[in-house]
Amino acid sequence: MSNLIFWLEALPLGRIIDFDMATVITTVANLVPLLILGIVFTKVLYAPVRKILNDRTERIRNQLDEAKEGRAAAGELRAKYDRQLKDIDLERVAILDEAHKQATHQREQILSIAKDEAKELKDRASMEVEMERERVREVIHTALIDISSDMAEKLLSAAIDRKAHERLFNEGLEELDRVVFSG
């Protein structure tokens, strides 16, 4: 500071650029604290504010990086989800095909069983009809034997003349018709 005063005293007639000495000293005296305050504020305030701004910038970069990673992860999840949907769709088609095959197989089995049962019923019905025919034949045969026996008995017991013979024969035919066509 003393060098500055010495320098200022060496100036001609006590004036610098049309300023008197008191103005220059006051100006320098005002500039020195401003300069000291500037240095102090730079060290005390600027460094922490700069650190806060750098930290904030770093946080923002980290958040952007995390957002990019999140977007990439979301893209991977979406791709995985799409693959799973395709797999599920393929599995659904396979299950439906298998169910259709099983249903067709069961239908064929049921139809086969139904055809077999229908054939058995038809065979049984045919057998029962045949047995009923045999029973009716036996009944008719027995009736014919009985009628023939009755006719023979009547013929032998009655006098055999032509009129009696025709009458007995007609009665036997009528009885035969009645048994055959009514039974």
Secondary structure blueprint with pairings:
Blueprint: H1 2-9, E1 15-16, E2 19-20, H2 21-157, H3 162-182
Antiparallel strand pairs: 1-2
The percent range for helix content is over 70%
- Termini, distance in Å? 160 Å
Q: Which value, in Å, is the CA radius of gyration?
A: 67 Å
**Poorly predicted regions:** none
Main beta sheet: strand number and arrangement?
2 strands, antiparallel
Averaged pLDDT: 82
**Silhouette:** rod-shaped
What share of the residues does DSSP label as strand, in percent? under 5%
Structural class: mainly alpha
Please explain how this structure is put together.
It is a single chain. With 183 residues, this protein is an all-alpha fold. Helix content is 91%, strand content 2%. It contains three helices and two strands, in the order αββαα. The chain has a two-stranded antiparallel sheet with strand order 1-2. α2 (21-157) runs antiparallel to α3. The radius of gyration is 67 Å and the shape is rod-shaped. The protein starts with a helix and ends with a helix.
Labels describing this entry:
2 strands, single chain, rod-shaped, two-stranded antiparallel ribbon, mainly alpha, 3 helices, 183 residues
Quick description:
This protein is mostly helical.
